[in-house]
């Protein structure tokens, strides 16, 4: 996975620093663990780490089932503890996660991949459910994070790594080898409508930098679909 | 616990006998046979090495009951599953000896998918004086044969021959983690992450599924089987452990499919120790019945526990292996060490239990005196025939001269596989690619 490799390596170093720091200061051995609820940042970095492990595990040809199950269960525990946290922005779009997960699972056992994909979807639904009804906090239009807290955005980024990519400035470089000539002239119109720009796309072009969530999903779908076709099958391990 | 006080009462006067360096590969399993005369090791490269204990001789004082290499053979080869486009590792996950029924020895060895029965025989005589063949085996010219002779058996150098007798394949979709021979000596079981199969030793083309915890929807999968073992005396009973820390005792007389346990052994979670990692550290990595059959020993990430078969609510004894790691769980999760699977072992009289840890340390707990000791298996720290010195990990506070601090523990040096001689105080410790055999010369008898 070309686009996630670079991203993941960078993140792994960050995770290491964050988790080691998390180790030192949020758990005081002299106090019982129950008395100390880990701060949101520690939970979030543990969440990211767990998602990373899950993705890594799923990418194996034949995942270690015990490892997988333990990581997923831990992820659920972390999510459950993060749920009531009000400062996290609502999840951008649940369908994005399973799409990426699907491509990652393409080489795995069919039954396992289907189940894990829906499992990740399930996780993101839980996330969505716990985030969406926030009567006390108005985050503005759903989906587009309004700048505020980059640290908490990290948790949601990895649930759909490509989503995070698309919000990055490094977008151009990552997609260099993909032929986007089909989309360049008509960024946001559906492929089936052809390439001719129409009057309705004027405002679209002006807002080109402001990505709508549904359009993001669509673009992601297409790109992931293209990648899946281009990637040759190879040995699992 | 006991380390600050007098440790003479616990048997730690082990001497380092030999260390066998299998340079090529990491040892993945260690197992004594039922008499302790033979010790088998399996490695990551699919090889099995069998050691034999030399009979004690009064002449050579230094070679009393030492183990020497007896036979080496390639048990499993790497395979390629063309359907799934996956390589099947040749690593030997487990070896179990069959009780000896004649002059030959037999053992079962397994990798992730296939179990094999091997027969080990000795040849120390050969026939000489054939009528039709000469000494080199070439056919004689019949015209030169004038009389008949009866071939006689003449002694020869000992030759150990190993041959595969059965191959039990295609029984498992998931990775085999345990095999266990039944006390009936006719059947054995093999367990993978989700299923347990019962085989007859003589039949390779079919097996009976006796436990199946695969959910209808894989999405609902939350628990896997981690280890299983037959009861040493009751051929209808077996136990299996799970990733959630529970043990299930099953009775094969109750039903063909033993999905309903007879007994469920589970310790409720300690609310004061609850963390995100509670489940991972409660996952049982090994379960062993005591020789008496009355108790079970389990190993989870931080403790070893003794369970009484008559009490399901909680273990009767819990021993801390390396509690100083409890505050490091986050880093251990990050570097995957928290998923390491340590084994545990009983001594012959069920009075002492042993398990491995990090930094090439292993721990022993005396159930009667409640003393415990930490020892190290490494060439640097112990000369041959020297008594092993107890080690100590300091967690801060007062530090003695030879103490190791928690932060300088080497987590790449893990002792996952250990075995205890069935009758004597001899232990086999696998430290990555080195095998250490320690013998207690001072107190040979079990107490």
Brief rundown of the structure:
The complex is a heterodimer of chains A (237) and B (447). Chain A has 237 residues and is mainly alpha-helical.
Describe what this molecule looks like in 3D.
Chain B: Keywords: Repeat, WD repeat. Chain B: Belongs to the phosphatase 2A regulatory subunit B family. The complex is a heterodimer of chains A (237) and B (447). Chain A is mainly α. Chain A has a domain at 46-81. Chain A contains 11 helices and no strands. Chain A has helices at 2-26, 40-59, 65-82, 96-105, 110-131, 150-159, 161-166, 171-174, 181-184, 202-206, 213-230. The radius of gyration of chain A is 19 Å and the shape is globular. Residues 1-37, 87-109, 125-169 and 186-209 of chain A have low confidence and may be disordered. Chain B has 447 residues and is mostly beta strands. Chain B contains 2 helices and 32 strands. In chain B, strands 1-32-31-30 form a 4-stranded antiparallel beta sheet, with no helix packed on it. Chain B has a 4-stranded antiparallel beta sheet with strand order 2-3-4-5, with no helix packed on it. In chain B, strand 31 (426-431) and strand 32 form a beta hairpin. Chain B is globular, with a radius of gyration of 24 Å.
